[in-house]
Design the sequence.
């Protein structure tokens, strides 16, 4: 009875206040709202850029008039727009525009792709790439000698898929002044030939900065082009919001695109923690901004990556002596100082931590901040949160730390994790079910362009945990599988919460922003294995249809 009375008053209010406004009614759908008070509906009424009503077809019909555009969903599943809680948005655009070395399955294919790309680009920097030697027939790191003959006068620095190591050719090393005598930066590694002592071309983590600092800065026009390309990809995949690890100059491009009326995705701009004073001086707090671009979060690094053997562990890697690399800002104490000060100024702290020692260190730091700094709704985040020691899962909930994770990494890394850290530590990897069982807020993202941008791949990964090599049909660490509805929540409402925006988006309910997605198949009922092949039929952003898939005649 209470619901019907509330529905009557909402209908009356909308009819009175919005009779002259343009409205859009989405009808005849299966609407999964991610709103516990009203999980399912048939129709949604949008007024301007806000959701005005969610309910039955009959109720929505009472609200339509000659000014209402009616869109028949034909029984398709509608969800809140996907929110990617961790990516490198403009970098992803550059990835789409530039060289793609990920398809290479051998050193020979790596060379051929690079050779074709550099033709006509002699003398211009070649960057990006995202190669993955773990997918090669012979899983050995490439060296500069592999590519020097095809790039004698062209500086090349192409990164591994995880972005924590890269290959420089001799020209790039020469321009950067890197020799066998170059001091190794804290938190980095210059890989050298064991016989000659000469650099092999592989640089890890902070050592990559020796190259990055001499690569020409991207122009506003270049960033603008890359961001527009990324926006195009996001529309196709139903992504209406992103938490972007923003690099210098990229925020200016986003603002320009917004001013030009071309911003079709909301941006939560996360800055490098070493820039925290700039935000403090500008009066920025967590969530400062408008409905399109918000700021107030800071990202730091605790360690590197598992693939590069720079993730920081308590015990050494298998068949190795290294424990990984704590970042230099942990070694010199700057991360702790910056995090304490930024938190006092109500800026959100988000720290990259992969290895179990890195995660434990950051949990200890967050706990100390919470005990010593004034209380506020701080919403600490750990980005990746991949490998944990016993007891640390529960600490996420106790301290109030959001696990910002990327499920595609689980089915990618799962192919070779055991080779890196052994069977025992492998069991405490990508622990999504354990997080949820312990009431930890889990937000899903992709880390694009490290992994594909498609949120449906992430949902597939979290639900099936089938590794990309096909060798785990029942799931890698199957006890960590989660349900489809939980996975959807991690990609919508939980991700909104991670950016202080759960009151304006992340679920389909009256008063929230009209960002939604319509899928080709009902992922809540089909065999989860088939989620991989599901497409986005329609993306709605700010109340407007910004993408509609063109169906082939045979479909």
Sequence:
């Amino acid at each position: 009875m209470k619901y019907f009375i509330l529905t009557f008053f909402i209908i009356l209010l909308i009819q009175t206040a919005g009779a002259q406004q343009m409205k859009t009614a989405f009808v005849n759908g299966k609407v999964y709202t991610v709103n516990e008070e009203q999980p399912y509906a048939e129709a949604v009424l949008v007024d301007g850029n806000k959701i005005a009503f969610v309910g039955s077809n009959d109720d929505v019909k009472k609200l339509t008039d000659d000014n209402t555009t009616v869109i028949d969903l034909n029984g398709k599943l509608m969800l809140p727009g996907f929110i990617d809680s961790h990516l490198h948005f403009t970098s992803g655009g550059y990835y789409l525009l530039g060289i793609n070395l990920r398809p290479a399955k051998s050193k020979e294919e790596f060379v051929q792709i690079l050779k074709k790309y550099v033709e006509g680009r002699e003398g211009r920097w070649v960057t990006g790439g995202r190669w993955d030697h773990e997918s090669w027939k012979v899983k050995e790191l490439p060296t500069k000698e592999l590519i020097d003959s095809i790039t004698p006068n062209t500086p090349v620095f192409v990164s591994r898929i995880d972005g924590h190591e890269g290959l420089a050719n001799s020209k790039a090393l020469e321009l950067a002044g890197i020799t066998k005598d170059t001091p190794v930066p804290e938190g980095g590694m210059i890989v050298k030939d064991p016989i000659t002592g000469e650099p092999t071309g592989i640089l890890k983590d902070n050592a990559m900065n020796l190259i990055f600092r001499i690569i020409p800065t991207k122009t506003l026009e270049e960033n603008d082009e890359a961001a527009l390309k990324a926006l195009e990809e996001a529309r196709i995949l139903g992504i209406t919001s992103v938490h972007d690890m923003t690099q210098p100059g990229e925020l200016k491009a986003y603002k320009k695109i917004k001013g030009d009326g071309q911003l079709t995705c909301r941006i939560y701009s996360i800055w490098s923690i070493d820039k925290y004073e700039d935000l403090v001086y500008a009066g920025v707090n967590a969530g400062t901004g408008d409905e399109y671009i918000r700021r107030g979060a800071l990202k730091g690094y605790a360690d590197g990556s598992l693939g590069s053997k720079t993730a920081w562990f308590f015990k050494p890697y298998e068949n190795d002596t290294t424990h990984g690399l704590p970042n230099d800002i942990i070694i010199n104490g700057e991360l702790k100082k910056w995090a304490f000060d930024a938190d006092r100024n109500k800026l959100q702290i988000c720290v990259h931590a992969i290895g179990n020692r890195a995660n434990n260190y950051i949990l200890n730091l967050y706990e100390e901040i919470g005990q010593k700094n004034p209380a506020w709704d701080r919403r600490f985040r750990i980005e990746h949160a991949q490998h944990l020691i016993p007891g640390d899962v529960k600490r996420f909930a106790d301290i109030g730390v959001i696990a910002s994770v990327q499920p595609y990494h689980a089915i990618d890394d799962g192919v070779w994790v055991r080779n890196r850290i052994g069977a025992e530590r492998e069991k405490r990897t990508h622990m999504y079910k354990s997080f949820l069982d312990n009431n930890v807020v889990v937000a899903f993202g992709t880390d694009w362009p490290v992994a594909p941008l498609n949120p449906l791949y992430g949902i597939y990964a979290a639900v099936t945990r089938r590794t990309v090599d096909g060798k785990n049909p029942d799931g890698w660490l199957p006890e960590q599988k989660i349900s489809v509805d939980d996975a959807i929540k991690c990609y919508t409402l939980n991700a909104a919460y991670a950016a202080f925006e759960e009151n304006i988006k992340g679920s389909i309910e009256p008063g929230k922003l009209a960002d939604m997605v319509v899928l080709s198949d009902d992922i809540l009922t089909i065999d989860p294995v088939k989620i991989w092949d599901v497409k986005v039929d329609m993306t709605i952003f700010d109340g407007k249809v910004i993408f509609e898939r063109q169906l082939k005649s045979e479909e």
